[in-house]
Amino acid sequence: MKTIIHRAETRGHANHGWLDSHHTFSFANYYNPERMHFGVLRVLNDDTVEAGMGFGTHPHDNMEIVSIPLEGDLEHKDSMGNIAVIKEGDVQVMSAGTGITHSEYNQNKDKEVKFLQIWLFPNEKNVTPRYDQISLKDIEKENEFYQVLSPNKEDQGVWIHQDAWFHLGKFTKGNADEYRIKKEGNGVYAFIIDGEVEINNEKLSKRDGMGIWNTDTIKVKATENARVLLMEVPMVM
Fold it and tell me: Are 38 and 189 in contact, with CB atoms under 8 Å apart?
């Protein structure tokens, strides 16, 4: 087993006033040659958008983009004609493919929005752009991991053009679960949304990240109430 740990306080940070963003991997003006990506996981941004503010229309191509709101509501508009609001308890996915433009705004006038912005390199380029979002309320579980993303249209959760699986878990103190790698050669990047956990005897706290590979299973135990995101991704691009 191999591991790498990224403590919350070691992430890149940019405060633009309307946007406060922490970058696990190199992004925009934050550049760290030792933190470019974890396998095909290219971007993991922890974003806070001020009330009434947002990202103006901007382009993407050949990237799988996943958004997971943690607090508040974010309005999405794109060049495919989609207009939607994503909120805590939702997962949004865009396959940028041949190219799209979109905007994201906090429509609330009195509270900020917090969300995770995650980019993965696709396993197929120049696909037809697509958009999807789901609510987790009908699939979420307590004290065990549940799937929210996969490569398969028929599986639970959203799907992307990559051999990746995302699982969320909400654990009360003292509970644990074991995650089994779904595809040989894949690794898992664990991101602690809230609380404190132990992963393979390593203590991790809020917004810490840990990459794990060359193993078949990963055990996560909550040492305090915790929310954890597991991102299983190919290690070779």
Answer: yes
Q: Residues 91, 182: one domain?
A: no
Note whether 15 and 97 are same-domain residues: yes
User: Are 48 and 68 contained in the same domain?
Assistant: yes
Structural domain boundaries, residue 108 = 11-135
Number of domains forming the structure of the chain: 2
**Mean per-residue pLDDT for 181-195?**
98
pTM: 0.97
Tell me: do 118 and 15 sit in the same domain: yes
Alpha-carbon span 46 to 11, nearest angstrom = 10
CA 70/CA 88 separation, integer angstroms: 5
Q: Measure Cα distances from 236 to 94, 123, 164, 218, 232 in Å.
A: 22, 11, 12, 20, 12
38, part of any domain? yes
* pLDDT tens track for 97-140: 999 999 999 988 899 999 999 999 999 999 999 999 999 998 99
Q: What is the mean pLDDT of residues 161-190?
A: 98
Q: Are residues 79 and 162 both part of a single domain?
A: no
